[in-house]
Design a protein that fits this description.
The chain has one domain. The protein has 360 residues and is an all-alpha fold. The model has no long low-confidence stretch (mean pLDDT 91). 48% of the residues are buried. Strands 1-2 form a two-stranded antiparallel ribbon. The chain is 66% helix and 2% strand. Helix 3 packs parallel to helix 10.
Amino acid sequence: MLVWLAGILAEYVKAFRVFDYLTLRAILSVLTALGISLWLGPWMIEKLRLMKFGQAVRTDGPQTHLVKSGTPTMGGALILVAIAVSTLLWGKLNNPYIWVVLAVMAVFGAVGWVDDYRKVVEKNSRGLPARWKYFWQSLGGIGAAGFLYYIASTPQETALIFPFFKDFVIPLGVFYILLTYLVIVGSSNAVNLTDGLDGLAIMPTVMVAGALAIFAYVSGNIKFATYLHIPHVVGAGELIVICGSIIGAGLGFLWFNAYPAQVFMGDVGALALGAVLGVIAVIVRQEIVLFVMGGVFVLETVSVMLQVASFKLTGKRIFRMAPIHHHYELKGWPETKVVVRFWIISFMLVLLGLATLKIR
């Protein structure tokens, strides 16, 4: 919106042409989203508290969590508002990738909102029934996948790219839709499973978004893409604005979500943020790299899958509690130590993902 206005003003004052630079708009999107989060945060937390949108805590989990009962949840709505406003202000709105990412965020955020509302307000422990949750997630994922497949203009945009190899690609054809669906829905639920401790999910999300911003920038620039042997996706560079808004909104939310948390993200934030990371990774053709950089999310998901499978097959549990962050809590690790150590792991995995840009 502001970019469009700056374009008009640039006809009279050349200084406004500076807003054509992606890097400047990315920085401004970070600062705008951060400012919105910090400004609206106290008001939203108080609203959630007055509306009694308090978190219910599992009694079979770590006993240290019982004091968190009643802490306002559904605070992820703050993140989504900050991302949307910042992106609409600083993004070029004629770019289709901007709109598909915002649409995915809206759909998955709505699913999470309904799930949270039913759990918190209606006191329905099941929330949104799983079949309906996955139905709407699948609808959103397949819709985004079909749209991206339709607008793809080169074979590279629908091929599976393997990191560490220059020319090892697998043309997917229509199977691109299936892969995209799995990445979006899978990353959405993976982030949601990770969101169990104060600040645990949001900081890895911020780090992965920062790395995806770099991938978006270089893949959108034909010179960088050619030099680094990655697919050149016309228009993908504009995603750096959304990635910047995720960073700003995430850091602003962390201000209130850091231990001891004043507000929890809830499914409304976790499901939406995970889906957004997934769709951005798909657009820049870095699904496998997302799997590496989001290793903490993968670990949390796999721990749940192994726990369920083991208990059903043998009647025994592998971990004291799943997801795995609760396992370490029950082993005696303080919550802050679990969170910070998982952040460190995420940081190292993000660096490994970025290394694939050069090691090909």
